[in-house]
Design brief:
11 strands; two-stranded antiparallel ribbon; homodimer; alpha/beta; eight-stranded mixed beta sheet; Rossmann fold
Chain lengths: 216, 216
């Protein structure tokens, strides 16, 4: 598959490139083509050092959308609306939202838009026939690029398009030891997104690092 | 410690009695003293069969509150307000809320009161010096009484009183293989409560049974 990553120079973008580009063509997008190319070269190099050939290229975000069968929105919630405003061509694409709207006072807390969740905001902002699926929300940013560390977590996947959700769950299951679970309709994405500030707090209050979750 | 359980004939009440009454004095409360006594006898019998002596007695709910150093509110959310209206004497007690306000359409969803969570509603309904702590929210009801099954899960504990939270975390860690984690202030209880409908959905959509969670 071709996977376009909007904001592909961030942790999750680079992480997905590192962990999927041996099997899939990854188009790492950025507003800045230089940054995208550099991130792509880093991925190719990291995998080459392990004797693995990778299919990864840098591009502007619009090209990542245009080329991707699946488009991952690896952007901060605060940049979501302006980023989507600047892009077109999402019609009929599978669009993955790993976005968590989080704020911080004396503790981290979930700070969703009026839509109910970031994924539901994505659905509102995109054409109606875009197939929005939330996934990869609860994986610590630091863990993504450490290729020697397996990612041994559950990934709750939400979406209203059954086929799209199945494809995304298949993709999740290709990444390290991640195990996808169907968490129901996109409306449930609020709970999954809100787990991220919860695990940030759990890390903070229990002196733990890079906390993740497993459904067992 | 003396642990009073309001609504002690339910799954979590009976479960806590089964799993803590060898070490702590459990007062299983109910509106119906007959039911409470029967539940207490069941616990005593179940432990006796395993050669374990248990300290468990049936009582009316008010007695469970009066005698408990810690009071567990093992009630359905829809009965919370009427139950608390009928009881007094919570001043300065540690009060544990394992309550999850859940509704169901085509899927289970979190349906909290205007307070933000059931635990925050408990805080509003009780005297200001009651020390409300949320815990035991995400453990499958069926699992509690199966004494031969270990409960190998994480328990996210929320509360604003540091000492009370520590005592509750200690209690959690005495139950089977449960591992308490400090999940921050009581305001975070909304996220922890909302995980319960999420795991109900995960069980439903993935053909799993009695799903629980671990923070790792």
């Amino acid at each position: 598959m071709k996977i376009g990553i909007v904001g592909g120079t961030g942790h999750i973008g680079q992480g997905l490139a590192h962990r999927l580009s041996h099997n899939h063509e990854i188009i790492l997008g950025s507003r800045d083509i230089e940054k995208a190319s550099y991130a792509s070269e880093c991925t190719i190099k990291a995998l080459k050092e392990r004797g693995i050939e990778s299919m990864c290229s840098g591009a502007v975000n619009q090209e990542a959308v245009d080329k991707g069968d699946i488009v991952v929105l690896s952007v901060n919630y605060k940049n979501l609306e302006s980023t989507l405003d600047s892009l077109t061509g999402f019609e009929n694409k599978i669009v993955i939202s790993p976005i968590n709207p989080i704020s911080k006072g004396d503790h981290f807390y979930y700070d969703p838009p009026a839509d109910g969740s970031a994924a539901l905001a994505v659905k509102r902002l995109l054409p109606e026939n875009a197939k929005v699926v939330s996934a990869f929300n609860n994986i610590a940013a630091n863990k993504w690029k450490q290729l020697d560390d397996e990612l041994d977590y559950s990934v709750a996947v939400c979406g209203d398009d059954h086929e799209a959700k199945k494809i995304v769950m298949g993709l999740v299951n290709e990444v390290s030891l991640l195990k996808a679970v169907d968490a129901g309709p996109l409306a449930m994405s609020s709970v999954v997104e809100s787990i991220t500030p919860l695990i940030f707090n759990i890390a903070k209050y229990n002196d733990m690092k890079d906390v993740g979750i497993k459904f067992i």
